[in-house]
Amino acid sequence: MSDTGTQGEAAVAAVREGKPEGTVKVLVAKMGLDGHDRGAKVVARVLRDAGMSVLYTGLYKTPAQVVDAALDENVDVIGVSLLSGSHVPLFQELGKALQEKDAGHIFVVAGGVIPEQDYEALYDAGVDVIVPQEARSELIVETITNLIADRGNR
After folding, report:
1. Whole-Å CA distances, 118 to 14, 88, 114, 129
2. pLDDT at 150
3. What's the confidence (pLDDT) of residue 90?
4. What pLDDT, on a 0 to 100 scale, did the predictor assign at position 104?
5. Residue 91 has pLDDT above 80, yes or no
6. Percentage of residues in the chain with pLDDT exceeding 90?
7. How far is CA 5 from the centre of its chain?
8. Which strands make up the sheet holding 53-56, listed edge to edge?
9. Strands 129-132 and 25-29
10. How far is CA 24 from CA 3, 18, 78, 123, in A?
11. Residue 125 CA to its chain's centroid (Å)
12. What's the CA angle centered on 80, arms 108 and 17, to 5 degrees?
């Protein structure tokens, strides 16, 4: 097993055991002109309360800025909340930026108002999981925990 897989397993175990933050690192991001960040802040808090280390980019970031921040902070997951309707082109840019920076190891979770007919385009752009707007806190935590746990299968 690779070091990354071992680290991932340790991080998942720590999260499941309720150990302090600093295990799984998540960057919660807002891209484009979407100025609604209440949900992103709530998700950041939920993940932090679950024992994850969480960073928030703030508003109006470009996909390239999000990728740079993710690499600078060595995160495991980028979680992006979008409500603006521009999710397809922004996630395509994010996926392209991740590839250009050889950062395909970072998981991407999409959340917000995303119509189901756009899911396939987002998966094609590199999104690993789409969390519906109405998702409960437990589902969000479990989704990220499972992503990290499955890292060795990637």
Report:
1. 34, 7, 7, 13
2. 82
3. 97
4. 94
5. yes
6. 68
7. 18
8. 53-56, 25-29, 77-82, 107-112, 129-132
9. unpaired
10. 15, 12, 11, 23
11. 14
12. 65
Q: Give kind and range of the element (H or E) at residue 149.
A: helix 137-149
Contacts of 147 (CB under 8 A, 6+ apart): 76, 77, 107, 109, 128, 129
pLDDT at position 152: 58
DSSP for 28-42 reads EE-BTT----HHHHH
Q: Tokens 């789409």, residue?
A: 130
Give me 55's structure tokens: 């960073």
Both tokens assigned to 113: 């108002």
Q: Report pLDDT for 20.
A: 46
The amino acid at 74: N
- Residue 80 phi/psi, 5° resolution? -115, 130
Q: In which element (H, E) is residue 73 found? A: helix 63-73
